[in-house]
Write a structure and sequence with these properties.
Layout lengths: L14 H13 L3 E6 L7 H19 L5 E5 L10 H18 L3 E3 L7 H14 L3 E6 L5 H9 L4 E5 L14 H18 L4 E4 L3 H14 L3 E6 L4 H9 L4 E7 L4 H9 L2 H12 L2
Parallel strand pairs: 1-2, 1-8, 2-3, 3-4, 4-5, 5-6, 6-7, 7-8
Bound molecules: flavin-adenine dinucleotide (FAD).
Length: about 280
């Protein structure tokens, strides 16, 4: 059972709970990106299992009218075991998505996985264009990767980057990452036909995306995490912006919840208050 304190960030332990959450979001005009919690598997078993769970979820979503899609992590589908296993499992997930007409996002993990993730994504998006890949502004290589993706079908999700990366390949200063994000957003709006997702809670970047949409006409959507700026998610949707909430679910919620709480003082205070008030 997920304790009430963690329910702000995690949609539940089961697919049924995740789909209930998606329904509530849809009622407020917000789409759902469902992510089964799990990463860094060192054996084939759990990677195959998560791929199967996603296939079942896609079949269940396909039988509904929910505005909901999925987002998968490469190491959840077996990348730490080997690139071949990741490619195989991603292919199986994408087969199910194609059968049930659902969109698939691929998350991006640390820089050691970027090439393998781009390569596997490229193979799949050529088969099934209803896909998108996350790229990170903190990596110096990313402008080249935006250009590579722009030549393919599919969408890009731009984020600032959640992983600590070596200073010789990444920007480590926050102001520099923000500047890189602004530049990449403009590059993406300029070069992408498929659509751009702004994976950020930052009001400045969201406003900039609105301006770039006016300037270039490129379709875009704002994506934010469950439990973070939820009022803003609903307000943007009410203003006519396409908004998707990334909502994790599953039994492996503890480390995800811990990361959310530790990344921001307000979240830590929220957790402390919940514990103190019982
Ligand atoms: C949908 C989604 C998918 C993601 N996928 C990936 C991925 O695949 N790979 C990856 O490396 N990273 C991913 N990330 C994480 C991302 O890289 C950042 O680490 C994370 O989003 C924090 O950066 P930020 O742009 O939201 O803004 P920050 O720079 O953290 O914050 C900027 C401003 O946003 C507002 N803000 C931010 N957080 C809060 C809050 N909790 N409450 C209130 N206001 C807040 C504040 O005004 C703050 O000053 C994803 C993020 C999202 C939203």
């Amino acid at each position: 059972m997920i304790p009430p304190i963690a329910r702000r960030f995690v949609a539940g332990e089961t697919a049924a709970a995740a789909m209930d959450h998606a329904r509530q979001l849809n009622d407020d005009g917000v789409g759902a990106i469902l992510n089964l919690l799990g990463e860094h598997y060192e054996a084939r078993g759990p990677a195959d299992e998560d791929a199967d769970t996603y296939r079942d979820l896609l079949a269940e979503l396909g039988a509904t009218d929910l505005d909901a899609c999925i987002s998968v992590k490469p190491s959840q589908l077996g990348l730490d075991v080997g690139e071949a296993l990741f490619r195989e499992n991603l292919g199986r997930v994408v087969d199910a998505a194609a059968e049930h007409d659902r969109f698939v996002w691929v998350d991006m993990e640390d820089h050691t996985t970027t090439d393998a993730t781009l390569d596997a994504f490229e193979t799949q998006v050529r088969r099934y264009p209803e896909m998108g890949l996350c790229l990170q502004a903190n990596l110096e290589r990313t402008p080249g990767d935006v250009e590579r993706l722009a030549d393919l079908p599919g969408k890009v999700r731009l984020v600032k980057g959640a992983y600590e990366e070596p200073a010789d390949i990444a920007y480590t200063d926050k102001a520099r990452v923000d500047a890189a994000y602004r530049d990449l957003l403009e590059l993406a709006f300029e070069t992408f036909d498929g659509g751009v997702a702004v994976g950020s809670h930052d009001p400045e970047m969201i406003a900039l995306a609105g301006d770039l949409h006016e300037a270039y006409g490129t379709d875009y959507e704002v994506q934010m995490l469950m439990g973070v700026r939820e009022d803003a998610q609903r307000e943007l949707a009410a203003d006519g912006v396409t908004v998707y909430q990334y909502a994790p679910y599953g039994t492996r919620w503890l480390s995800y919840f811990y990361r959310r709480v530790m990344e921001r003082k307000e979240n830590a205070l929220f957790a402390l208050r919940a514990v103190v008030s019982g």
